[in-house]
Design brief:
seven-stranded mixed sheet; globular; alpha/beta; two-stranded antiparallel ribbon; Rossmann fold; about 200 residues
Amino acid sequence: MKRASIASAEKRWDLYELPARMDDDTFLDVGCWAGGFLHEAVIRGAERAVGVDSARSPGLNLVLDGSDKIDFVQMDVFSPHWFSLPRFDWVLCAGLIYHVLNPVGLLHRLKTVMKDGARLFVETAVRAGEHPTFSFCAGRSFDDNASNWFIPTPSALFQMTDEIGLIHENSFMLEANRAIFEFSLGGMLPTKYLPRKVEYMNE
């Protein structure tokens, strides 16, 4: 299991166009599962690689035992303890957006763990279409998996990240219905973060 996870992560690392080197940087993998990306980050020079997931994969122990630079935090991304995490130079969130009820909230929380100058990589299933919409995944209609909720169009992801103050740096399709998106931190507080104002409210 360890070898398969690491081999898959190495291939996907290059496929996602993650940085070739992370010398002395810190790396966070949100939804890390078996930890293959954590291993790969350390191989590429990361000083510290931290994985977060709500479940602990049996294969994760093998990765954790392989390096004292790798840590794991078992936690739901919407836990209040999320905000006790430090900030990181590189943040990866692969295959998670469509599993959560609140994708905007997830993106906001990813933003809170980014250092100034950090990069966020989001890999997700996407729906075709120019309009900013989400497709609802009833039952097992997507990937035969009942834990899937919503699948965005790329423009929906762009508009959400723009509203919360993330800057779109790069994106490309990985296959017909999956894409990778790269974001940096915006320099100003988004309007939606400000307190509600009377003039914005309807009578």
